[in-house]
Amino acid sequence: MKIATQWEDYKIIATGNGEKLEKWGPYYLLRPDPQIIWKNKENLENFSDLDAHYIRSAAGGGHWINKNNIPDEWNIKYKNLTFAIKPMGFKHTGLFPEQAVNWEIMMNLIKKVNRPIKILNLFAYTGGATVACCSVGANVTHVDCVKQIVERAKINMELSGLKDANVRYIVDDCKKFVEREIRRGNKYDAIIMDPPSYGKSGNSTWKLENDLFDFVKLCNEILVEKPLFVLINSYTTGLSKIVVENIMKLCLINKSGVYESYEVGLLTKENIVLPCGSSSLFIGK
């Protein structure tokens, strides 16, 4: 387990009854979390400073209740990086704070090699990893199939003072983009991916358990002979991190390096660790 402990603008205050009470900068949000199957004697909805509460619908999805007229979005910082926070549909805020542990790993690897590094960030969402890698000088190609999400990545880059960094934003299906990069003969020193359990892009359908193996095998073709790293994140409940590591070992053909798989998590004010998905990492030699 790797725990993100270096946040100042983000904290988990309390957990229980299927929900987590978080502090995002100056605002307190209450959101569902499927990992929280334990109980809390307190009803977190009664927290006196609660600003917004995400309520699930029995029919699927849900909605936010804005209790204190908080703004549509605001900013928080992680060290020298700044991110825009916005309560969005499906309970998201546009950032996954637990990924700070992976940002630190990637930034340290990039800094150690002391040379230009070309990174491909797939299923890149709002660009937490893109911002982190660009902040230490990497060149990043940021790919996601949702235009509005890519626009939010651009906002995060600008907020972090990286508007002029070497980043290429691509709105496209990740598999189709990788296939084109193979035809073009483009290569990358590192690949990051955070694939969903299920997704649709145009006429293409993605299902993790069916498609991940072939996709990682495809990505191997656009890696340089001696890659710096490959990182695969997963939030799919029930998918073992060792399964993902095994896929990497089988697909990263003729790549020399070491593998590590771990859960990522966040420490709460109750002094317990909330698990928040898993990562599998290849570091080249």
Features:
285 residues; Immunoglobulin-like; five-stranded mixed beta sheet; 6 helices; globular
Overview of the structural elements:
It is a single chain. By secondary structure, the protein is α/β, with parallel strands linked by helices. The protein has 2 domains: 2-72, Immunoglobulin-like (Sandwich); 97-284, 3-Layer(aba) Sandwich (Rossmann fold). The chain is 25% helix and 35% strand. The chain is built from 6 helices and 17 strands. It has helices spanning 100-113, 128-135, 147-159, 174-184, 208-220, 241-251; strands at residues 2-4, 10-16, 19-24, 27-32, 52-56, 62-66, 74-78, 81-85, 118-122, 139-144, 167-171, 190-193, 198-201, 204-207, 229-234, 257-267, 273-284. The strands form 4 sheets. It has an 8-stranded mixed beta sheet with strand order 1-16-17-15-12-9-10-11, sandwiched between helices. The chain has a 5-stranded mixed beta sheet with strand order 2-3-4-5-6, with no helix packed on it. Helix 1 (100-113) runs parallel beside helix 2 (128-135) and helix 5 (208-220) packs parallel to helix 6 (241-251). It starts with a strand and ends with a strand. The mean pLDDT is 96.
Give a brief outline of the structure.
The chain is of the alpha/beta class and 285 residues long. It has two domains: 2-72, Sandwich (Immunoglobulin-like), CATH 2.60.40; 97-284, Rossmann fold (3-Layer(aba) Sandwich), CATH 3.40.50.150. It is built from six helices and 17 strands.
